């Protein structure tokens, strides 16, 4: 069973056993289930379950690595159910008539029952079940005593999927003669070869435990497009002053250098906002779309819509929708060509639609379909993507997030901004994005639309 499935199973079973515990407590105290008391319990049950689930989370019952022995299960379950019971008692004593219908001793009786049930099912799972941990193939940069000590501590976590692939000498210059192993761990090469070493050994995590030219090392890993490696550093005082410690291995603090581009909670929230806002805008702006479509038909004939293949998240191709702003078959003789500021292929109506970005409105349907978001790197055509990936280091990185109708590059740079500069804006957005930044970019986009400055 995967770790995520174990967490879901734990929450479901814990919720069920909390309810069973209180039903047993009511039966034991009242010798039955009077409708008045039972109805009160049913009304309060969501709050009661929430109190116990939150308490279980606080004491690590949903982190299987923290409850991997019988004693750890008993200790954590005792503390979690005690806190859940205290919260329920507070609810019963401070609540109104509804909570007073729940007899005061029932939470105490339920505590014993719930603790027994939770300990029992977790012990059974510990005895007969198994959590499949995602494999973490770890390379440690450093060959000194502290590096060997850290490697030994990581190796102790093998039951949680951690594996020390080897050590790397911190030198970033030309490779020198290196010992075959240090402290029983193989030496794989020098830090100057880190991208190739990580690729060859399928590394998923690199921990920098020794002083090294960190900037060069991180850049070589991030710019190796086919790699997806987390980089941690054992921080010195300077790093602690400017960053945040993210994890501790044994007694060694670690600071993550290459962060996930999107917080875990954000995609669902962003998707929900995209859907709601896109549907509302389609309804509100439908007259604008209709007028624009008629203007295209009257001045240049059909078709009104223009579809074109673009590269989306993870380079997956999709069709983007726009109102046609160029003459028909604009690329029949030239092939794929980027539009220029004074491109003669753009029609008179098309120039207005581009300046006001009305031509982008059909992309609301791309947003509803899930191929795009409101904010993100602008999607490019596969022809140019292939070229940029070959020529611009790190260009593939921008495809780790969903493309957007607008983005930081569009509101920060002018029309003629080069792909290299746009990439910097895209990466800034990817590694620092949040919902507040999305709102700010949308507001800036409206300013661009109203002033016509920087429109693309």
What would the average pLDDT be, to the nearest integer?
Answer: 82
Roughly how much helix do the residues carry, as a percent range?
A: 40-55%
**Which blocks of ≥5 consecutive residues have pLDDT under 50?**
none
Tally the beta strands: 12
Order of helices and strands: HHHHHEHEEEHEHEHEEHEEHHEHEHHH
> How many structurally independent domains?
3
- Give the overall shape: flat
Main sheet specs: 8 strands, mixed
Cα distance spanning the termini? 49 Å
Kindly report the spatial arrangement of strands forming the biggest sheet.
3-4-2-1-5-6-8-7
Secondary structure category: alpha/beta
Number of helices: 16
- Using only CA atoms, what is the Rg? 29 Å
Strand fraction: 5-15%
Layout of secondary structure:
Blueprint: H1 3-30, H2 35-58, H3 70-94, H4 97-100, H5 106-128, E1 136-141, H6 145-155, E2 162-169, E3 181-182, E4 185-190, H7 194-200, E5 205-208, H8 214-222, E6 230-233, H9 237-242, E7 247-249, E8 252-256, H10 266-300, E9 305-311, E10 317-323, H11 348-356, H12 363-369, E11 373-375, H13 382-391, E12 404-406, H14 408-412, H15 419-432, H16 435-451
Parallel strand pairs: 1-2, 1-5, 2-4, 5-6, 11-12
Antiparallel strand pairs: 3-4, 6-8, 7-8, 9-10
């Amino acid at each position: 069973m995967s770790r995520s499935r174990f967490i879901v199973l734990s929450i479901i079973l814990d919720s069920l056993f909390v309810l069973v515990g209180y039903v047993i407590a009511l039966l034991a105290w009242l010798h039955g289930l009077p409708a008045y008391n039972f109805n009160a319990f049913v009304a309060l049950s969501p709050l009661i379950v929430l109190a116990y689930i939150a308490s279980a989370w606080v004491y690590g019952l949903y982190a299987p690595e923290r409850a991997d022995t019988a004693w750890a299960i008993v200790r954590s379950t005792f503390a979690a159910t005690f806190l859940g019971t205290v919260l329920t008692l507070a609810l019963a004593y401070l609540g109104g008539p509804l909570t007073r219908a729940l007899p005061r001793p029932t939470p105490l009786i339920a505590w014993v029952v719930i603790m027994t049930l939770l300990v029992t099912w977790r012990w059974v799972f510990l005895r007969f079940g198994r959590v499949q941990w995602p494999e973490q193939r770890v390379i440690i940069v450093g060959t000194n005593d502290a590096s060997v000590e850290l490697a030994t501590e990581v190796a102790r976590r093998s039951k949680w999927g951690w594996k020390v692939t080897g050590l790397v000498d911190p030198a970033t210059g030309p490779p020198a003669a290196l010992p075959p192993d240090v402290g029983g761990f193989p030496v794989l090469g020098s830090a100057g070869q880190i991208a190739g070493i990580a690729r060859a050994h399928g590394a998923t995590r690199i921990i920098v435990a020794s002083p090294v030219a960190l900037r060069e090392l991180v850049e070589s890993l991030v710019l190796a497009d086919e790699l997806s490696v987390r980089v941690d550093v054992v921080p010195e005082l300077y790093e602690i002053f400017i960053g945040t410690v993210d994890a501790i291995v044994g007694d060694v603090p670690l600071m993550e250098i290459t962060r996930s581009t999107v917080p875990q909670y954000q995609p669902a929230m962003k998707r929900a906002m995209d859907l709601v806002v896109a549907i509302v805008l389609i309804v509100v702006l439908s007259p604008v779309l209709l007028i624009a479509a008629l203007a295209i038909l009257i001045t240049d004939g059909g078709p009104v819509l223009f579809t074109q293949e673009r590269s989306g998240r993870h380079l997956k191709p999709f069709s983007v929708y726009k109102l046609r702003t160029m003459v028909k078959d604009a690329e029949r003789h030239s092939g794929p060509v980027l539009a220029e500021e004074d491109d003669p292929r753009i029609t008179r109506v098309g120039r207005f639609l581009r300046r006001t970005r009305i031509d982008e409105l059909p992309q609301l349907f791309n947003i509803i379909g899930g191929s795009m978001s409101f904010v993100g790197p602008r999607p490019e055509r596969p022809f140019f993507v292939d070229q940029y990936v070959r020529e611009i280091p790190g260009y593939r990185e921008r495809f780790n997030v969903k493309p957007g109708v607008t983005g930081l590059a569009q509101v920060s740079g002018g029309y003629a901004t080069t792909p290299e500069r746009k990439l910097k804006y895209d990466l800034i957005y990817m590694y620092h994005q949040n919902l507040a930044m999305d709102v700010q970019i949308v507001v800036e986009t409206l300013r661009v639309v109203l002033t016509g400055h920087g429109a693309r």
